[in-house]
Amino acid sequence: MTRPQNKEFEFLGVNHLALVCKDMARTVEFYRDLLGMPLIKTIDLPGGYGQHFFFDVGNGDCIAFFWFPDAPKAAPGVAAPEYLPTRGDIRSAHGSMNHIAINVAADKFDEYYEKLKAKGIDVTIILNHDDSDIQVSEEVTEDVFVRSVYFFDPDGICLELAAWTTEFEAHDVRHAPMRADGKPAEDMLHT
């Protein structure tokens, strides 16, 4: 199947996602030294305003961090989920960033899961997402479309390693988006 194409803009992916950390040195230790993401650009912001560092997450895409000396404290359960999936409520507020899913090859997924654990990172169980009623399978079946494992960074940012296991087709888009009042927008299903 050919993936649907954007007819308005020729987007090339995500240039960077900018997040905020409490301690840039600890962030460098986690993303560069523990996860192996190359640190490709560092900026000291003018007037002592803080720093902005960029890590290569593959395919020319970056995860970037701001460090502001007087930033407000983290707000788990509001600005980000308080718990990892399978461990509690994963909801976060409207306009928040819930988690970052980092794409990995399906044939490397199990190896990377073990590598995270060996590095002492507290990870969830592997979730094999499928279209069943409970939306997860203990085994990798033909219905599994993505495999996931979740963990927090030092600032409580929820990260996911995700491996697609199938190509999507037109029938995979079958749920009408919900409006704020909890009613489906049936007219938007196949626009």
From TrEMBL:
It comes from the Bacteria. CDD domains: VOC (cd06587). Residues 13-164 form the VOC domain. PROSITE patterns: VOC. PANTHER family: GLYOXALASE FAMILY PROTEIN, METALLOTHIOL TRANSFERASE FOSB. This is VOC domain-containing protein.
